[in-house]
Amino acid sequence: MTRSMMVKLAALALILALACVPAGAAVSGNLEIFSWWAGDEGPALEALIAKYEATYPAARVINSTVTGGAGVNAKAVLKTRMLGGDPPDTFQVHAGQELIGTWVVAGRMEDLTFLYEEEGWMNVFPAGLLKLLSTDEGIWSVPVNIHRSNVLWYVPENLNKWGVKVPATWQEFLEIAPTLQAKGVVPLSLGENWTATHLWECVAVAAMGPEKWDQLWAGKLSWKSPEVIEAWKLFGEVIKYTNADAPSLSWQQATDMVVQGQAAFNVMGDWAAGYMATTLKLEPGVGFGWAASPGTNGVFVMLSDSFGLPVGCPNRENAIAWLKMLGSREAQDIFNPLKGSISARIDSDMSLYNKYLQSAAADWRTNVIAGSLAHGVVANERFMNDFATVMEIFLQTGNAEAAANAAEAVAIQSGVITR
Description:
The chain is 49% helix and 13% strand. The protein is of the alpha/beta class. It is globular. It has helices spanning 3-20, 42-55, 72-83, 97-104, 113-119, 127-133, 156-162, 170-182, 193-208, 210-217, 226-238, 251-259, 271-279, 316-326, 329-339, 355-366, 381-397, 400-413, and strands spanning 29-35, 59-65, 90-94, 134-135, 138-139, 142-143, 147-148, 151-154, 186-189, 263-267, 289-292, 299-303, 305-307, 368-371.
């Protein structure tokens, strides 16, 4: 056998050997994942980490979780790291302006169009969601779920006991609230500041309608318009029937008030369904019930958790492997039934999802879609941070006109709208 032939055979043997190595074997070393999924939301993330480490046994996941509802604390830590040149390998971020209006415009994220093309994701994620993830320059994150923010939660048995029905409008809620108070029941449980913003967006969408809500973020409707002022006034009436200790409560504790019969209703995203079904072991439709928040029937106020690829992250290839896994049908159908959300893909196996999530998936396909403010779809980080101050002022003063004027100034200063 000639030396040339031996070299060729050796090369062929190497190629065959590499072909037999599991795909995951090429990924090794660390992968730092930055998120705010902890405590009751932790099991869903832990399931993804377990899948990643099983697929890539030579890799080690560093779970850098910063606790705090809606990522309020995590975003502050992330900002310090990103601006300090110490990005995590990948981080959780709400799809939409929270990512694009903050880190994409700053040139801190890699374009993931190549990944979408390689994995065939252009055909499995809805076109509207792809638009939310994209600019003219690229696609910037991989969505792992779809959440609905405008959900009213209650315990059916308790409502029957108290002799009240689920309110279809906020006016109906205001009519039954005194009856509940007379029975020693908090009509609507509320938590810390961001949950007030969450409630405000649901009230505003009800008061204004989804079309004018969109116009507000497109700069076609002034924050000082009568429609917005009326939304603030309605919100002011609603929060009169909330608990006085709201600023000291997490969203889980506000949910607990409903479960324990201390409160009749709570408006929260459907991660509350994940909490009640996964952590509290309640059966959807029996242990807890749900409806679109008052005045928003037929509207799906959406948000999506996603992960991106920061420029200069230490373990880029490992992060890409994580993103590939996140976008897969298998990973999404592992994560979402635990999280209390639906898959971002259109081909998920709905037999794996509970009764609530099946209803949410049906609404996602048929309802009018609106973007969430509290969860980063329609506004950038600067607006969201400053709007928290606007909310605090309103909670203290109840002045609708002042809140509308302040929100207009914040929208202009943050670049959400231009004048």
